[in-house]
Amino acid sequence: MSAPVSASEPAPPRDRFLAFAFAAADMLIEASPDGRISFAAGAFRQRMGQTPEQMVGRHVTTLVSAADRVALSMALEGAAARGRIAPMVVRLNDAARSRSTLAAMLVPGKPPRLCLTLGPVAVAPTDPDPQDAPDTREFAREAEMRLREGSGGQLALVEVHNWQRMREAMSGDQQRTLRAGIAEAFGAEGSGALTHEIADGLYSVLMPESGQLPDVLQKLDALVRGTPGGKAARVEGIGLSLDTGALAPSQAARAVRYALSQFRAGGTEAARAVGGDGGLQDVIAQAETRAQGLRAAIAERRFRLKYQPVVSLVDRSVHHFESLLRPFPLSGGPPQTTQDFVVFAEAVGLTEELDCAVTETALASLRSVRDVSVAVNVSGLSLQSDVFCARLLAMLNAPDLGGKVRQRLLIELTETAEIEDMQVAAASIAAIRSLGVAVCLDDFGAGAAAFRYLREFQFDFVKIDGRYVRNAPLGTRERSFVASMVDLAAAVGARVIAEMVETDEQAQLMRMLGVEFGQGWLFGRPGLLPGTDR
User: Fold this and answer.
1) How many CB atoms lie within 10 A of CB 374?
2) Full residue range of the structural domain in which residue 180 is found
3) Which pLDDT score is estimated for 71?
4) Same domain, 281 and 311
């Protein structure tokens, strides 16, 4: 038996730190203040299916489920000011999405270190658990991150045919059991796969290695056929390699978003039709064959704008209207959603042309009315372009526009694509604001990149993503997210808008949490701009 350590022989600092940390934790992480892991220890193999050494170099947000990454990003942003992250319950990025308590302390030094622990949840949650599925935008951003890191792998697009018939034959418990089984098949044995259920029976899966899909499809087929109503079901999937080849990372990211949008609209058949069963270069090539039709549609303004009011939550008076793009069908084809239209424009490099056309159309409406303000959505892809910025400033400086008209325009920065050239985007935003045009960060909370934008750019408004507004009345967890966003916006001098407000309960809660403006069907649906026939 070894002798006990005496008071004169203290344990080395790191050993002492590890001992205290693991007294109440399963996993320990040391990271830079921005969240990049430099050291990991503990039960990572058992909990995450990977060794502690494999965690080094990754970002801490990748350890939690995609649905909790925004919350963790907010906590990381606040850690610099508060010196710690108070214990919070997160769901891990494992097959079971198991819950864990995360806490952290910022340890001073040169450089400082962020020390995080992940441990058991002491008490069962009392709040309802919103559906654990990131929206397609967050999933696409995760794919983009892997593309930029060059980590390879495969984007699997999987469709379970006859899902509706199966759902009608199953009870609620049976449906939940089936969904859990599907998630386990995709992420079995800690494979590191990230799964997103786009719609009933439609799954997109980021797999760390190519070649996994056939085995997964076989497991899914056996699972589905063994459920009530599943004998006639059929599982089909295609695999899109994430090898960028000769494509730039930004082009590869556009290809992923385009393939996902087509899959969401029409399943595996639609994804295959745009080259989804080949490589990223095939997807881009297929998109470019249709680019001429889109270019003509933009030039001929084959779209309309509808306007939705944004109101004060105090007295319900209208502050401004957001212009919303509504495209016409391309070349006699079926109607498209706005998102599909925008993603296609991104895929073929026509985002700047589309944003210019929409801005010109909105400015024409502003010229024809008085005392009405209008917001226009502009992609981050456009704002990081010197050419686009020059065209936009020329429009804003047009002699017939005038300062009073110009100051009734707002620019909303959308987060459909992540900004790469932060310096150019910052200069664009500064130039726009110098003309008296307000700038708003759209969909705040939809992805972690927004926190970087809030830190680097100057915004006049921040719009909270509608998912948080919808879920806020359900429990304290979601309300705390909204309150944190309001605090972060206030810290940089931005006013806050809540979107997708549909009930008085949501409106009152947003006001109580410090949100100043609201937008949603409660206050009005998109329509004509008052005082115009547009």
Assistant:
1) 20
2) 136-289
3) 79
4) no
